[in-house]
Sequence to fold (177 residues):
Amino acid sequence: MTKQLKIFLSLGFLIAINLSHIHAQATQSIGATGHVYAEIIPVFSANEITRMNFGRFSPGPQGGRIILTPQSTVSVQGSIVTGVGSHNAASFEVSGDEDAAFSISLPDDPVLLKHVSSEKSMLIEEWNSWPLPGPGNGRLRNGFQMINVGATLKVGTIHDNPAGVYTGTYTITFDFN
Fold:
């Protein structure tokens, strides 16, 4: 064989070995196991525990206002005379994910209480709560929190608000942050 042919064959052989080595590395693969994590948290909920109750009273000749605080204390303005019996702020239990923050939104507009057997009515306004309403003021400690709600009841005269039971509903919104 000629010297050139030997060099050519030797180079060809080296190139073939290198190409097979490069080809072998390109097709090599390695697998790894990844782990996935997901957690289902409790559904957020709010339930009325205690109804708001302004108690028993008589409007008197001018009527007036009954102010019920979130701590269930009552004060009256005007000619209202309170009767024997109980009164209390409303209470709601909010539950869900531990340490979640939430906002409390009270009614913006007055709420109507209607006499159960006539068309007479009274208004509830000036809503307040503890914790205070607003963004992020509530926090679920151990997954729950009690919210107390008070308001002011506007009472007319005995002609405007005759004796009897008055009822109504309202909505409080809890937004979880």
